[in-house]
């Protein structure tokens, strides 16, 4: 893991802050473990972890005016300097408009500004500390700093309503550590804090001006090309070059690298056969220059881009995708590697792994991704986030009705009717979209709170059922059915409290609002995946989650999004505009074997080890579930009962995360007593624990 951490005190020297650290509770000097100081004095900032030299950039105007940009940023030093001067005057949005994925921190006197991203893949957290405010790009260091206990209300909401921003609000798994919402910045002035949005939000009362589809797709192409180019322009890295023990009899450089578990030098990409990863791989291979691996380091690929395809032999059905990937990899600028998976790479097969900053369903599939990424490059492009930024959430049908664009509902509704085979589908979908368009946001939250109290968890069947269920402001999560009544009541109270907050309305249409929530959840899970499946010296890149790509995708007309096959059509146009027109037949076709098939096979194969987790689960000690109920559901799902597997993945991953958190030793800070770490007292068996999270 890599993160930034710093703080702003109410007055210079109030917390004993200096370049060497800060004064803790017992007068000890405090600073993060494994950190490099970026700047000190009253409001210090550290970079913690294995940051590369080119990932940390600081531009200084004077002793009290400077900007730090950490991550992959396509801006030049002069652009950073101009951005610093503009930010000194209070403007923020331009700090998030450079290509790449990064975190920008600006210091102007005693004012500190930390910008989060639009998707939520690079979040910012904060907490009151030592008379001021501490902030970081990871929640665990702040939880260690204040010895935070678990926020049981947040954990309940994470299971009961993970897609509902009002349920989670700004909380984290750690009580007292708060999250800055996506699209917002944290502004600190001498210890006081303010959360400011930097992105304009479409009005709910006035229809957005009609967007030209061609120019919108061109903007997506330009943003994606800039995002890929920002990665290609960064220095190439040779992982572990300084620790290579030298020649070994019978082993070449590639074998020595594989034995050390380090990735291939240079840049590579996923090539699953799907449209998102294929687009990025072809863009990276087609841009001018030498796109791929570093020549002369034993890869046998020269400067070709390393393309990695995962072929799951344990669960068939993706043969056509692998074949399409092989056809794409015939490009002479690509070096194709196929990684095969067996029973040992199925979900739930290996539940050991590192502690992540937050829980996420990717914890149960981490070994599957780690197997693929181990064959990847030092900088590896992935297609994560493409579905969320390009596809149309079903609730966008209500947006079209609100904007009086009923004619654009014909093709998506006809596709649903064809899939269902019922002539009643158009009327049902239209009625649900019309109902949502006329339902206030407050009413939607109140309806969800009532559903949780009454334990109404009807599971939709088929594509039509899923679309109808999604035509709401908010709906229960797949794991909600297995929570205790107390946990559901806690989440219901959180939702009812949200309706009384000022400015409860989302300020945007229901489809756009639901799509932003889905993107935030997907980005959070990508962040968890990056930490859980981390390969030493490797960087995962998700260009579809970059700010500029997200912005470009948000300009796509809803009428274009809702059409069947819209994502593949948009990306095909993007590639054509970039000079790539020769795509294999069937490119972009949806997979007929969903991830649920692998999850079911994996659960069936590993049900005994998963059941062992729930012999005495920490979730039951926290009052969130009853152990026997979860064990019964796991056995039923393993035997093929139609239960929501993603809900079981949420339960298992949260139990895993709690166990890893409580089993850790040490803290993120030096100079602190042993007690200074998150959840110092563990979980005590009590039934009223959830009240602390409100």
Automatic annotation (TrEMBL):
- Taxonomically, the superkingdom here is Bacteria
Q: Where is the Asparagine synthetase domain?
A: 267-659
Q: Where is this region: Disordered?
A: 238-269
A Pfam family of the record is Asn_synthase
What GO MF annotations does this protein's record show? asparagine synthase (glutamine-hydrolyzing) activity
Q: Please name the GO terms of the biological process aspect recorded for this protein, alphabetically.
A: asparagine biosynthetic process
Name this protein carries in UniProt: Asparagine synthase
Q: Which organism is it from?
A: Streptomyces cadmiisoli
**What lineage does UniProt assign to this protein's organism?**
Bacteria, Bacillati, Actinomycetota, Actinomycetes, Kitasatosporales
